[in-house]
Amino acid sequence: MGSHRIRRIRLVALMFVLATFSAAGAARAEDADARAGAPAERRFGGRGQVAFDNVVGVTTEGGHLGPHMVAGGPSDTVWGATGYTGLIGFTFSDDRSADEDGFAATSRTAWISPSVDVFVADGVSIGGTIGFSYASYEARRAAVGGGTTSMEAEAFTLSVVPRVGYVFALNEQFSLWPRAGFGYAGTRADPVGSAGDASVMNAWIGVADVGLVYQPWEHIYLHMAPELVLRLTRIESSRGGALRGSASLELGFTGGVGVLLGS
Question: What is the pTM of this model?
Fold first, then answer.
């Protein structure tokens, strides 16, 4: 009698264990089906994504975005910019000397510079930066015998720098995005109200950067990168005289906020 009771208890225990394992297996299967049916998370750099880089940002000397991504301004001595950069922008400067000659100079620069990369495959990007800027410059100096002398100039700049890159995902929010590009930039500076020659500046620009991308939201990311900028430039008058050539290699930093579509 006692042995039958023990057998029944063992049988009930065995059935309970089997039912428990069966329920757990069913739950795991349902969870796996739910994960399989849910849309896969797309990290930064997925195929079909479009990144609008540095919509708003900052750059240091060597930065190739913004008004000075090309071969200088009207004075052809300004290379790179420290400060704001981005899709569109405007800068103003006012320089006044305390010397007896009363030198004063003002400059204004407006630009548009979209920077876009398309991911043609997972991690592989093809894109570039196109820039157009307009700058005006005015300088005044006390003339001998009284009065003042002045000089005005304006400059138009166009630049195109294609590039390629590859994304290395570090985790769900951080990625490394090295890129390299090579392109052309040209500036024409014309004197205003005088018979002087225009200055024509042409430059070949090579850019390499290793960016760190942080994506806190689905369509917004932060991009920070040291960048190496090579410029090979030639400056001459519009009549073909006063030829000058120069080369520079600069290490700078750029960073800003980008917009990611298709994620």
Answer: 0.72
